[in-house]
Amino acid sequence: MKNHVRGAWILAIALFFSTVGCASKSLEVGKVDTNINGAGSVAPTIAPADPQNRSVDAEKSPEEIVGGERDVYGCLGPAGYNWDEEIGACIRSWELKDASVRKAAKIAVQRIGQANGLTVLACEAQNCTGCFKVTLTKGDEQMTVDLVDWVVPRSTPQPE
User: Fold this and answer.
1) Which of 61, 71, 128, 147 is close enough to 132 for a disulfide, judged by CB 3.0 to 4.6 Å?
2) Do 128 and 112 meet the contact criterion of CB atoms below 8 Å apart?
3) Assessment of whether the complete model's pTM goes beyond 0.70
4) What is the pLDDT of residue 137?
């Protein structure tokens, strides 16, 4: 019985010392290294990150990066974006719950024009009724549409 208790303490101490200094080391999640401590038990530790900042799967091309999958509408599902038929763009439904915010997003999308991958990034109410700043993205292009009293002013540029 004493050997089991002593083994548990040795394991706990080994785990403690394996994490000391973590604040000063760059760690990479998901990599596990096993060290055999003096008592002969195996203690898992987190391996230091690659100092050259290479990805874990350096062989993968950018198209294969996990989390970069888009659906048939061009929405980035792993980031929480889904196609909204009413608005006509990819949205995060929990960010556009309010009816007035949804209305503003829909007006902005109509101004830009529906397109595959068009995504509503933000829809911020301004200081007047029907006034919003809507930020959208399509590919690498980011656009802002301002609404004043539910209308897009003529000064707001249209996409080409």
Assistant:
1) 147
2) no
3) no
4) 95
